[in-house]
Amino acid sequence: MSSVVTSRAAPTNEATTVSQESKVIRDKDTPIDIDIPDNYVSWTLKNQKVRPPISWDNWWKELNYLSLSILTITPAIAIYGALTVPLRWQTAVFSVFYYFVTGLGITAGYHRLWAHRAYNASKPLQYFLAMAGAGAVEGSIKWWSRGHRAHHRYTDTLLDPYNAQEGFWWSHIGWMLVKPRRKPGVADVSDLSKNEVIRWQHRWYRTLIIGMGFVLPTVVCWLGWGDFWGGYVYAGAARLCFVHHSTFCVNSLAHWLGETPFDDKHTPRDHFITALCTVGEGYHNFHHQFPMDYRNAIKWYQYDPTKWFIWVCSKLGLASHLKQFPDNEVKKGQLTMQLKRLREKQEGLTWAPDSNDLPVVNWDTFQEQATKRPLVVIAGFIHDVGSFMDEHPGGRHLIAKMIGKDGTTAFFGGVYDHSNAAHNLLSMMRVGVLHGGMQHGLDDKRVPPAQRLRVARYTELSSPYASSTAASDYEGMLG
Ligand SMILES: [Zn+2]
Ligand SMILES: [Zn+2]
């Protein structure tokens, strides 16, 4: 009896200790996704509570009025202002400059530094980026990065807060205008919670967006060249609209326009126009493949001012540990896509039958058949040259005299060393294989040039293990 009590008590104590221990650890630094189940995505998609579909009866209850106000009042001020306040050149130049400053706050700061940890930034640079990013009025670093990490982790699923599968306008702006239809998939941001700059920005966020979004640009234009209203309208409101839609394009345009040079599993794409619109975030196919790389564009001539900014900061000693994926792995991705496209081209062409597809015919049958139709043997294959005799550039007579004969030597240089194109074309006239005609030394002549290098799936390649069968056959023959 006592043993039963003991055996009961022991596991209970142990379980308590373990749970207390794990609780202590979890309270400190444990990432939020430490013990999510392996089937997290499918389980969540099935069981998560979602908001009802938006309809005429409920749309006013489903709107996100804060975002809606920011995203409608700002352009309204900009449009009204543009019609009533003349644009001075100093204000125009400053507005463009400030567009890049606040844009970089998002691309170099929020995105590449904090959401992806693509490099390390010194404290002064971090404060600069946190303030510049606040001037773009897109939420705090922590909120933004949490959503963006979910976007990468659950790309093209309903757990991606700006899922491109739901359409261009949804991923561009729609997702912000209504209350989130479901909670974005789990993504850990415990590293960001520990960062003093991020905590500082979070605490002062409202002051910062007003200060950096409107007060600073207005004051600069006012004190600089006496253009208070121009500063407010152009460097404040109009510039903010451009920054908003520029960065929104990373979620919409970058998942819609362009090529997929690294992977075509998901929607992200590379395009120069997207790069132009987004301060260099347009090489989004690369970015989703190699998200921790500080670059989006890997070629020097591609437009990626965010990369150039980070690089210059590193030269000035403000940034360090710029991460780059190994070039070897980047090239593998590119090659995979190139081979895939070549394979599609290859499958779109008609190829010559090989010896397994053709009847094997002995010399006597070949001779007999050649009296009825124009057959020529070349490199062990029997070809029906009837449709080609009149087209032969060297003249009909050269083919006619080879009918019923082996023209291998004549074809491969004895009379004329035929081109690759000629050899490829010849292979399309194959109708049979001559029994015993595949002598050694003809190997490269049996395979038409266009088929010597081909794109094959791994399942079509003979594996090194397959040779064991051949070896046992060989031994069998010897035996
Ligand atoms: Zn994306
Ligand atoms: Zn990203």
From TrEMBL:
Membrane topology: Multi-pass membrane protein
Catalytic activity: octadecanoyl-CoA + 2 Fe(II)-[cytochrome b5] + O2 + 2 H(+) = (9Z)-octadecenoyl-CoA + 2 Fe(III)-[cytochrome b5] + 2 H2O
Classification via SUPFAM superfamilies: Cytochrome b5-like heme/steroid binding domain
GO CC list: endoplasmic reticulum membrane
KW Lipoprotein (keyword) present: no
Localization, UniProt: Membrane
Gene Ontology molecular-function annotations: heme binding; iron ion binding; stearoyl-CoA 9-desaturase activity
Ranges of Polar residues composition bias in the record: 1-22
Residue ranges, annotated region (Disordered): 1-23
Domain Cytochrome b5 heme-binding: 376-435
Alphabetical GO biological process terms: unsaturated fatty acid biosynthetic process
Pfam families (UniProt xref): Cyt-b5, FA_desaturase
Gene3D superfamilies reported for this sequence: Cytochrome b5-like heme/steroid binding domain (3.10.120.10)
EC id: 1.14.19.1
Cofactor note: Expected to bind 2 Fe(2+) ions per subunit.
Cofactor: Fe(2+)
Role, per record: Stearoyl-CoA desaturase that utilizes O(2) and electrons from reduced cytochrome b5 to introduce the first double bond into saturated fatty acyl-CoA substrates.
Protein name (database record): Acyl-CoA desaturase
